[in-house]
């Protein structure tokens, strides 16, 4: 598989040979969907909770007598049928949202996404990606000169200048190759890899 190598002006200068195992696979939509769904589900935290009828701060006194009033019988005002009452099946804060995905499936899903990006000509490679100073303007100009309006940059090493320069740019996301994930790859219009990141990805996805 050949990936386009571009210069600082976004012009293709050569090509980088990449393994077909990582960048030349067929697109498996069901696998990609499963991997993306599992990644998002595993990022969820069980931090929300609802109150059941035993957690509601209301009196347990019977609101009116059982018979003779013409109204429906009622036991307590914390009943789930009443406004302000407890939930019948409340969400608990310790709920587990995680999905299990085998390691081989996860790696195969990442390879399928990368391969589809390469086929659609949305993947580019650069020798290295650095900025001289921690300035947002410098990084924005660098990306614009390369011809990108919105881009995900995956690099083998993120220095302090790059990290500080990218914090306030919504259209640029910088990731270390170790943190490359299916959600970031799927939602990105363009992906830019450094040559060292390509080699590390191939090693990680074996």
Task: Please give a handful of descriptors for the protein shown.
206 residues, alpha/beta, 6 strands, elongated
The biggest beta sheet, please? 4 strands, parallel
Report the structural category.
alpha/beta
Total DSSP helices: 7
- Distance from first to last alpha carbon: 16 Å
Record field, number of beta strands: 6
Instruction: Classify the helix fraction into a percent range.
Output: 25-40%
Could you list the spans in which at least 5 consecutive residues all have pLDDT below 50? Answer: none
Strand order of the largest sheet: 3-6-4-5
* H/E series: EEHHHEHEHEHEH
* Rg, Cα atoms, Å: 26 Å
Mean pLDDT: 93
Beta-strand proportion: 5-15%
Shape: elongated
